[in-house]
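Hi R.,

As promised on Friday, here is the backbone we talked about, encoded as structure tokens. Could you run it through your design pipeline when you get a chance and send me back a sequence?
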């Protein structure tokens, strides 16, 4: 039977449409399959890159933990050299990791030392004034943000100011937890805090060294301008461990004297004087740098032992590193104490902002450090430096330490087949054992 022409045409069109739809469906299934394959491949690449980054971070943590318990007896730079040698490596043949940071124009293998910066909590308003771009009103606002009350200081800002903002929030009323928290303080700009290091990863990334081609704008001079983040820290903390790798000897009235004998190499009589002095109000082990044992006074105000034999410089240095006046910060769950600046790792640029350190003293310290291949180990290394009095050394040791507890590790894992990268940035604290990761960012 013959079909009408119109119906044959319709049947032909329908057949072609069905064939076309089938082709589309087949292509869709193929595309979905390829998409899933590519997606699975990307997921696998990301997993390999992430595990490589984790592997690098674990290498650094293992070195830091080992050095905390078994520090090198003479070389202050030994732990940095170890981390530098392990700062890159392969995980099988599929992935690799690298760990680096920048200080100005120089790139370094290994983690960044948080103690190479000044802890914000150790700075007075007068100290803050010397930071680049700092003003009196910004200082007042920083003080109001960090103090425990809601009283507004002149030029400052408190609870009412932050509640009235379009997206309201509360001031910290306590110490900052991260350096970028400064940007929450009204009037402080990200440029102040970050400089060119817009992602705060401590590395001169390509977009931070290409002028105005990509964000952020920079001067393309090959130097990482880090703003205040390159000068300040809020994460360094004092170690509860001594140079021996053992917990510090806790000194108080009659407490810890016997342990000092073996740890510092002093006599029982000397240890007894130190223990009694440590139990007095406002006692400080740093006073021993400039005050003989025979002059120390006890709770009654009387000289403890006028016949006490003097300590050697080496004994004083060891005492300051191995012991501490008893306090809650020495407990495993006690409050962290803001860390001192590490005299071995602080840059010359940052040294210029350290409170109370004049240009002439900074020059002396830089010159002396350059001549010490193994760095400073204790206060004794400063006591005979030309140009530094005992009183000045006592002041310096109140600000500077010789060993660091907190490091910022930026580990980049790479999947070798695809080139995919995963960046981990962790703040690692070994001021107490076990070593802990206090903060981690994954990019």
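Update: got your reply. Pasting your designed sequence below so it's all in one thread:
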């Amino acid at each position: 039977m013959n079909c009408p022409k119109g119906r044959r045409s319709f049947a032909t069109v329908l057949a072609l449409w069905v064939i076309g739809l089938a082709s589309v469906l087949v292509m869709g299934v193929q595309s979905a399959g390829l998409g899933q394959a590519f997606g699975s491949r990307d997921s696998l690449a990301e997993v390999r890159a992430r595990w490589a980054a984790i592997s690098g971070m674990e290498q650094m943590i293992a070195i830091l933990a080992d050095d905390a318990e078994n520090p090198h007896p003479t070389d202050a730079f030994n732990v940095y050299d170890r981390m530098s040698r392990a700062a890159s490596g392969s995980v099988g043949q599929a992935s690799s990791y690298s760990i680096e940071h920048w200080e100005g124009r120089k790139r370094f293998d290994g983690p960044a030392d948080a103690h190479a910066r000044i802890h914000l909590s150790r700075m007075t308003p007068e100290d803050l004034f010397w930071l680049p771009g700092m003003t009196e009103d910004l200082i007042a606002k920083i003080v109001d943000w960090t103090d425990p009350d809601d009283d507004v200081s002149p030029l400052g800002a408190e609870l009412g100011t932050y509640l009235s903002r379009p997206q309201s929030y509360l001031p910290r009323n306590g110490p900052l937890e991260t350096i970028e928290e400064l940007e929450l303080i009204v009037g402080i700009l990200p440029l102040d805090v970050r400089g060119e290091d817009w992602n705060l990863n401590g590395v001169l990334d390509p977009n931070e060294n290409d002028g105005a081609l990509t964000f952020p704008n920079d001067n393309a001079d090959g130097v990482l301008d880090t703003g205040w983040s390159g000068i300040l820290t809020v994460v360094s903390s004092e170690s509860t461990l001594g140079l021996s790798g053992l917990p510090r000897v806790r000194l108080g009235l009659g407490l810890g004297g016997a342990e000092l004998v073996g740890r510092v190499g002093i006599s029982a009589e000397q240890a007894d004087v130190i223990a009694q002095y440590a139990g007095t109000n406002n006692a400080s082990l740093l006073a021993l740098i400039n005050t003989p044992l025979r002059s120390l006074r006890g709770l009654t105000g009387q000289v403890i032992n006028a016949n006490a034999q003097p300590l050697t410089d080496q004994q004083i240095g060891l005492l300051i590193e191995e012991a501490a006046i008893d306090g809650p910060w020495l407990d495993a769950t006690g409050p962290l104490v803001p860390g001192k600046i590490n005299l071995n790792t602080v840059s010359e640029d940052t040294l210029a902002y350290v409170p109370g350190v004049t240009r002439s003293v900074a020059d002396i310290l830089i010159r002396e450090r350059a001549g010490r291949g193994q760095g400073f180990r204790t206060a004794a290394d400063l006591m005979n430096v030309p140009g530094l009095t005992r009183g000045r050394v006592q002041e310096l040791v109140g600000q500077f330490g010789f060993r660091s507890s907190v490091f910022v590790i930026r580990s980049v894992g790479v999947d070798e087949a695809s080139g995919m990268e995963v960046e981990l940035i962790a703040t690692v604290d070994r001021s107490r054992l076990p070593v802990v990761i206090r903060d981690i960012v994954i990019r």
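One thing I noticed while checking it: The two ends are 71 Å apart (CA to CA).

Thanks again,
M.
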